[in-house]
Amino acid sequence: MSFHKNQLSSSGITSFQEFIRHADYSLRTNLNPDPASSHDGDDHRAREVCSGHYVPVNPTPLPDPIYITHSYHLFKDLGLHDVLVEDQNFIKMFSGDIGTIETARCVGWATGYALSIYGTEYNQQCPFGTGNGYGDGRAISVFEGLLKGSRWEMQLKGSGPTPYCRGADGRAVLRSSVREFLAQELMHALGIPTTRSLTLFASQSQTVMRPWYSEQSQSQDPDVLVDNPIAISTRVASSFLRVGQLELFARRSRVDAHPQAFEELKMIVMHLIEREYKNEIDQSLHFSDQVVLLARRFRERLCSLVAHWLRVGYCQGNFNSDNCAAGGFTLDFGPFGFCELYDPQFQPWTGGGGHFSFLNQPVAAEANFHMFWKSLRLLLLHDDTKLEELDQIRKDFEPYMQSKLQHMWSKKLGLSRYDARICDGLLDLLGCSKIDFTIFFRELSHLPTDFSALTKSFYMPLSEQLEAQWQSWFDQWRLLITSAKDQQALSQNMLKTNPKYTWREWLIVPAYEQASRGDYSLIHQIQAVLNNPYEEQTQAIEDQYYRLRPDAFFYAGGISHYSCSS
């Protein structure tokens, strides 16, 4: 096993025995297991889970695991030494082989959650027709504990079937695992709340067949079956509680699905407050007050999160309630993408439709908040005053979101306050021009005095009419920003807001293709680049990673669009 250079963690926990001493399983202690579960973790067959907060289930180990990479930044944040990834028990745990670790004494767990699409309850793909089949189909948590004073949960993705797998094999392919690992690294480096990447392991001997795109395919849907190495990536978060989880227990409570239905809803909400909002919500307050504060705090986090997504050109792709973290951070990197050529309707996932497109994400967020609010209402039905407060928070969602977006656009443009003429005018011009979203804002951050300095961000020459419109907008923007006394400070603030390096799918594809052949060097290089997205890097890195998308990749299946990334 070899590490790439720039190792960050030269001190901290060096052995698995020391690491596991930090375990503290609050979810398993405070919440209810499924009463029909085996309790020993041998629970891999798809089945209906009708009650309880989690199912004990152990991961299925990767055969012949090989280390690919780990997050040096997260290791440092957790107080872990880099040599820990050489510990055989650490390797076993994070490649799915927890059953042979005597010192761990751990059984993994998976959780259920409901699914709503744009605020509409959805059961159609549940094999039982009840919604009780949705949940962690291929994600199994194996550790929860306290590291450097904070609580963290570690979850293996691609770790084999759980009761929620709906008949699938529960595996993740190397392609999607590389994408998720690197995307989480980038999102954190961008300063956006997100799940984090810990480790990435692949199997040297087992593959699975998945539909994907043939070379140079422009098909909307995959046109070939591809043999893929399987992999397990470990993602880390304060919790993996989702809006869909609250929604599941609320659904059960409404129909009295079982005698403990209402109590389990209350328990999961109390657990959410403890895990995600304990520093913002005083748990000595009356529970009704806590619920109202929870709605207000979640609204703030969710709106801020979506504003961040738009700031950097990120499109989640499938922003249902089950993919919306109740802690207000980015969760589930499947059919995601980043805008290169600006398009308000940008949506890389062919199955997502326009409702999850780039500029529709605030509306999708409101739909998810609606389901969150709807779930909490059940807990306040006997308190008219608090119910009215909760309902007002829901009513104010749209103007609150708009205030966050206006602040974000102002900051991207270096404006001291929101100017509708400048901001709306820019979005109109971006929409009718072929322009790279990241390069344009990065070049603008240097406060050019001539519009021609921005032309490197355009994919096509402008018509005379459009060029005149751009020049007019540019002159108006210049008048506003020249009022700032410290132009250097203004530029620096914009450079810290508008990244230089971003996710470009056509640069990621070679990394996972090389990895499938046993070469992980490009993954390491991209990881290093994406860990410093706001910084100027070497000229060689700039030449490779700070450039317009080549024409050949604009309609390429698996690059410009994809049906999934399983």
User: What is the 3D form?
Assistant: globular
Mean pLDDT: 95
Rg, alpha carbons: 24 Å
Total count of helical runs of at least 4 residues: 18
Task: Give the amount of beta strand, in percent.
Answer: 5-15%
Order of helices and strands: HHEEHHEEEEEEHEEHHHEEHHHHHHHHHH
Proportion of residues in helical segments:
25-40%
User: Uncertain segments of ≥5 residues (pLDDT<50)?
Assistant: none
Attribute tags:
12 strands, 566 residues, Transferase(Phosphotransferase), domain 1, 3 domains, 38% helix, two-stranded antiparallel sheet, alpha+beta, six-stranded antiparallel beta sheet
Task: Please render the helix and strand layout as text.
Blueprint: H1 16-20, H2 26-30, E1 55-56, E2 65-70, H3 72-78, H4 88-94, E3 109-110, E4 116-117, E5 120-121, E6 139-147, E7 150-157, E8 172-173, H5 174-189, E9 196-212, E10 224-237, H6 243-254, H7 261-276, H8 287-312, E11 314-315, E12 337-338, H9 361-377, H10 384-395, H11 397-412, H12 420-431, H13 437-444, H14 464-481, H15 487-497, H16 505-515, H17 521-530, H18 539-545
Antiparallel strand pairs: 1-3, 2-9, 4-5, 6-7, 7-10, 8-10, 9-10, 11-12
Helix pairs in contact: 5-16, 5-17, 6-7, 6-9, 8-9, 8-10, 8-11, 9-10, 12-14, 16-17
What this model shows, in words?
With 566 residues, the protein is an alpha+beta fold. The chain has three domains: 16-240, no CATH class; 245-407, Transferase(Phosphotransferase), domain 1 (Orthogonal Bundle), CATH 1.10.510; 413-497, no CATH class. Helices cover 38% and strands 12% of the residues. The chain contains 18 helices and twelve strands. Strands 2, 6, 7, 8, 9 and 10 form a six-stranded antiparallel beta sheet that branches. It has a two-stranded antiparallel sheet with strand order 1-3. The protein has a two-stranded antiparallel sheet with strand order 4-5. A hairpin with a 2-residue loop joins strand 4 (116-117) and strand 5 (120-121). The model has no long low-confidence stretch (mean pLDDT 95).
